[in-house]
Write a structure and sequence with these properties.
Blueprint (H helix, E strand, L loop, with lengths): L8 E8 L6 E9 L2 E3 L2 E2 L5 E4 L2 H9 L4 E4 L5 H9 L3 E6 L4 H10 E9 L11 H7 L2 E4 L5 H12 L7 E5 L3 H9 L6 E5 L3
Parallel strand pairs: 1-7, 5-6, 7-8, 8-9, 10-11
Antiparallel strand pairs: 1-2, 2-5, 3-4
Helix pairs in contact: 2-3
Pfam family, one: ADH_zinc_N
Cofactor: Zn(2+)
Protein name: Alcohol dehydrogenase-like C-terminal domain-containing protein
């Protein structure tokens, strides 16, 4: 991972996009321990998804605030909750909408870490980045050290995956649910024996 210079005590956001909509998660002004020299562990306290089922799941998983991106102004609500915006956004989505939200949610002199990428130009200009003092950093993840740390976090109960186990004969029904954005978490298909 790259060095982000996001403060150890911070407000940070993560923008995700498994489909056409951007999703944002905010970590609000709390101490974030360093995992390794160049990695940070961020605790979820605000989630930006849509629908009451997503609200319930996020609150069960420890979110303090929930932002429904379909019903609320995400960047306005982020600003209301954080005053100046978040220190950093970790953008795992590859959509232009996700990067637009990232730029709107980050405070001046903030950092946008790019994990998901889009072949189109980013929706923020170099002039705006200079004017606001924004840093744009690329990051590649998924290497062995990150996976080992993730497994350690899961073993300690600090990462709680939401997994639905489904028989293999329901693969078509699950694919349709995935396409419609009706799946929470991950689906694991049971192979017939």
């Amino acid at each position: 991972m790259c060095t982000t210079d996001i403060p150890v005590t911070q407000t940070a956001a993560r923008v995700q996009n498994p489909g056409p909509e951007a999703r944002i998660v905010i970590q609000n002004e709390q101490a974030v321990p360093q995992i390794t020299e160049n990695q940070i562990l961020v605790k979820l306290v605000v989630a930006g998804l849509c629908g009451e089922d997503k609200r319930r799941i996020c609150l069960e998983f420890g979110a303090v605030h929930f932002i429904d991106y379909l019903a609320e102004d995400v960047s306005g609500e982020v600003t209301r909750l954080t005053s100046l915006g978040v220190h950093g956004v970790i953008c795992t989505a590859g959509s232009i909408a996700a990067y637009q939200q990232a730029a709107q949610c980050v405070r001046n002199a903030g950092t946008i870490v790019c994990i998901g990428v889009n072949p189109q130009n980013l929706p923020t200009s170099p002039l705006d980045m200079v004017r606001r003092g924004l840093r744009l950093i690329g990051s590649a993840v998924g290497m062995l050290p990150e996976m080992q740390e993730l497994f350690q976090l899961a073993a300690r109960g600090e990462v709680k995956p939401l997994i639905t186990l489904v028989p293999f004969d329901q693969i078509d029904a699950m694919a349709k649910k995935l396409e419609k954005g009706q799946v929470n978490g991950r689906i694991v298909m049971e192979m017939p024996q």
